Amino acid sequence: MSQVEPWLQELLRLNDEEEKMTEKQIKIVQAAVEIFSQKGFAGSSTSEIAQKAGVAEGTIFRHYKTKKELLLSIVAPIMTKLIAPFAVKDFTKVLDAEYPSMEQYLRAIIVNRMEFARKHFAVLKIFLHEIPFHTELREQFQETFSKLVLEKAYKAIRHFQAEGQIIELPAPTTMRLIISTIVGFLITRFLLAPNADWDEEVEIEHTIQFILNGLTLRKA
Amino acid sequence: MSQVEPWLQELLRLNDEEEKMTEKQIKIVQAAVEIFSQKGFAGSSTSEIAQKAGVAEGTIFRHYKTKKELLLSIVAPIMTKLIAPFAVKDFTKVLDAEYPSMEQYLRAIIVNRMEFARKHFAVLKIFLHEIPFHTELREQFQETFSKLVLEKAYKAIRHFQAEGQIIELPAPTTMRLIISTIVGFLITRFLLAPNADWDEEVEIEHTIQFILNGLTLRKA
Amino acid sequence: MSQVEPWLQELLRLNDEEEKMTEKQIKIVQAAVEIFSQKGFAGSSTSEIAQKAGVAEGTIFRHYKTKKELLLSIVAPIMTKLIAPFAVKDFTKVLDAEYPSMEQYLRAIIVNRMEFARKHFAVLKIFLHEIPFHTELREQFQETFSKLVLEKAYKAIRHFQAEGQIIELPAPTTMRLIISTIVGFLITRFLLAPNADWDEEVEIEHTIQFILNGLTLRKA
Amino acid sequence: MSQVEPWLQELLRLNDEEEKMTEKQIKIVQAAVEIFSQKGFAGSSTSEIAQKAGVAEGTIFRHYKTKKELLLSIVAPIMTKLIAPFAVKDFTKVLDAEYPSMEQYLRAIIVNRMEFARKHFAVLKIFLHEIPFHTELREQFQETFSKLVLEKAYKAIRHFQAEGQIIELPAPTTMRLIISTIVGFLITRFLLAPNADWDEEVEIEHTIQFILNGLTLRKA
DNA sequence: CATGAATGAGACTTCATTCAT
DNA sequence: TATGAATGAAGTCTCATTCAT
């Protein structure tokens, strides 16, 4: 999964929408991402963004009606992208075919999402900070998430439970435990100790083993 | 540990410093907590706080030189409180005496910190949101954390490793995995699905077992 | 005249009105003088004055209804004091009796007013700065000045002109030239170069000779 | 010197820098000059300035970052202009060539600076009032003055002393006496009795004669 | 498309003054 | 008499947004 799977390509193609953008517009977005992620949305000023983008103050509003629209244009797409790998049409088929073991599945997810986080670090940070303050964002995310991901993820979990690979906890609990561990890993890696030079491979391995062990019955 | 241990009382007593506060000052702090946690620091206005507190806007600045000082007066103490249970002078003694098994230890921590999170939910939320934007906060937290908690926690981890209760991962990795799981639990409980009525006891139990299993060697 | 003349004593006695003042009130006035002279009236805050005086904010307003009243209580008396030496009831008699020559008269005035300026430097500075901005002050000063000083000074000038000691310029012109020179001397001494160590005696002598020469006919 | 000398033109040309200014910006400066000179800097409010300029308050801060910057933009240039006529590269040559007698020199200076004071009355008033409260202003003025004027003025004084036109007082003393008289003249004319209709020509003549007499040896 | 001067609402903050204690 | 918490008007300054060029 470190290579983009065919079934994902369609989804991902939606994202490369930097096409119709003016050169100036791209600079605006880049500047906005940088400043929003440093100071937060409410703490940033459009004039500062314009300055960093090397653009007149008015130019921003030629492309985005309001400051908030600029934010959403940055943050909304990331939600879809974030979720994309899980939004597969027929999940269990995928599972059967490609991930015979939970371990391979987990490793694929972690590696893939880590690349994603590395690439979109700043935007993800903005997303995390702003989602509590913008109802539309939150609702859109919740809807997308529960529609596209939740049931499919539950299916996958039950699939591995049925196969006896993991224990029979409630699916939401299982999911919470997995996501907590992965997100905790990513946050530590990119936010808390971005400069610490650690052995990424080894940490990933520990993390995967922790999840697998955690979800496996201890033999008495 | 759901009861406050004697060795904690001193530490905790530092916190009930709402003494010298005017009635109005208390109202200001309450209003500020509510509004900051809803809209974020930069998105809140002092006039709104004053209004909600039923106080003239000038009154805020009689007690706090700046809006930011108001924020810090709210958020700084929570850092110490958050860490308090781990800032024990002689940790291993405590461990020997009171927590023969890692399981008991984990349960104590989770229950205790859950009560704490329940009580200080709003302030914790503010803390989490603002810490990336305020260097002083971040540095103070890092210092306090590494001084008071880190080494002691590592000691505890090594203690349980020596006893053969958990496997020999690097202490920082072990710690990351434990904290991720606990924080993930608390965030799910209080932030993501605060209204979902789930069986807290059972979820705690699952969480503890997940951590313990995760850190225990699978018997081949 | 470096000693206080008998006819002045009455006038001067009006000034030592620090009698009925509370200890705190005195401290307030001292603090106000210091701060007003450093930052100007409009640039000073009553709270700063209270702080420097070691007094509660409200205490100032127990003694002075408004900030401006505090200013006037400081500045108004200095006007009288400043003018006092010239406000003699029967001036020409004084002149005949005590100052046979213009030179002696000038020297007396300069020495005496220099001591005055040295003592009341800060208050005089406040007075000079504030007089353009406070109509009452300006009017009161103009009235006092023209009533008590102007005619008497003109009389003295004409007296010395009649005696042939100085040339027959218009009295206002003569007065302007004398006052300009003296005030210029005092401002240089106390404001522009207060730290320069110069020979005061010699400078006074030069100044007097300049005025006298300036008002004497050059012999062809 | 009532006509602008050629060597001055360059210096003076620096001043007509109202070029790049918006129409509104010019109105702001005009309003600010008027209000500052009436109420002093600290006693004026930006809202009042905006109102008198017929401009939104925000517009002031688009052109000047702070209220103080507005003050300095008004007051700083006047310092150079005030001094300009004395900041000539080779002063004694000028003296030799154009002012054979001290009298002509004095008359030229007085007339020229009187026109200047008449034209820039309000700004000069602001300058005089504010210089004690703004360290930067004071230091900049002292530096400019001592660099550009002092030595040259001393040279001129010694030039006239060497020619026997004036007596051998120390140059600083001589300068103090001359400036006191001239400044006293200007202040009387424009500040103390601006409405009194006096014969300016005659007063100038008296003032010049006073200075000349004052600095000339009385023949015994 | 792009500019940047202009706006005016509203942000944070100060301050003279009042008043219950 | 003295205090100092409280006030609210006013101050300086910021900022998203508009619009003529």
From TrEMBL, chains A, B, C, D:
Keyword entries, A-Z: DNA-binding
PROSITE patterns: HTH_TETR_2
Pfam families: TetR_N
InterPro entries: Homeodomain-like_sf, HTH-type_TetR-like_transc_reg, HTH_TetR, Tet_transcr_reg_TetR-rel_C_sf
Ranges of residues in domain HTH tetR-type: 22-82
DNA-binding region: 45-64
Superkingdom, taxonomy of origin: Bacteria
Coiled coil (residue ranges): none
Protein name: TetR family transcriptional regulator
Organism: Paenibacillus marchantiophytorum
